[in-house]
Translation initiation factor eIF2B subunit alpha
Amino acid sequence: VSFINNFYYLHTIIMFGLVDTIHILHTTMRDAVAAMRNTDLSIAAVVSGGELFCRFITLSLDDKHMEECRQIMLHRGKIFLTKLLNSRNVIAQQAKKFVTDGCRVLTHSRSRVVLKALISAAKNKEFHVYVTQGGPDNSGTEMVADLEKAGISSTLILDSATGYVMESVDFVMVGAEAVVESGGIINRIGTFTMGLCAREMKKPFYVLAESFKFTRLFPLNQRDLPDEYKYSRKHLVDVSKVHPQVDYTPPAYITLLFTDLGILTPSAVSDELIKLYM
């Protein structure tokens, strides 16, 4: 919710910002997105979402008068926010078809979009969900509480028990903090390990992610991820004694990505990303 609130903030800047040229407004928007990077929100999502928002609302406005531009941007901003708010519903409707009656699902920590999909699937099916604790903040416990509240049978497991449980599940379903150009994902630490286990045991590995998380980044390995993506802001001065909060899962370990743009194979991500950033 706090992430979406930031887009409402950007929309408010357009509505009430005291600027008289497109260039100044664009600069103000960029500064606002830069300020969002200093929050505790996912840096990956802030970078991609902020850039996509600015691109979408300012496309082909150079030759128009300022007030006309402002009205166009406000209209486009509303369209962007509407799509953003509805994206999880779209993804949930796609993903729920892959959750069959009596199946066993493994998910990592807590993901709002995964939770939405599972709750949607549970309306006419019964299944069991294994949820990893999701250290270091153990947000998996919150995920289990949400599932139990929705009447979905679930079990909280240790992060280190991923390999043990993998042989008992039908597929893996995780969220993502970012989807990169290769079709791989950046997500909470431990996702890559889960992908490795799933591939070794030939279990489908499904990723649920909103299109505003598509980012122009092409990591080749874990070391390629920028430090600001991997560590909290307070630890960036010295990262030698802290562990990363996220890892990179290459496209080879991903079966399908469920997005508000449709169900994609990892190889199709680059084409969709080009369309978004044109």
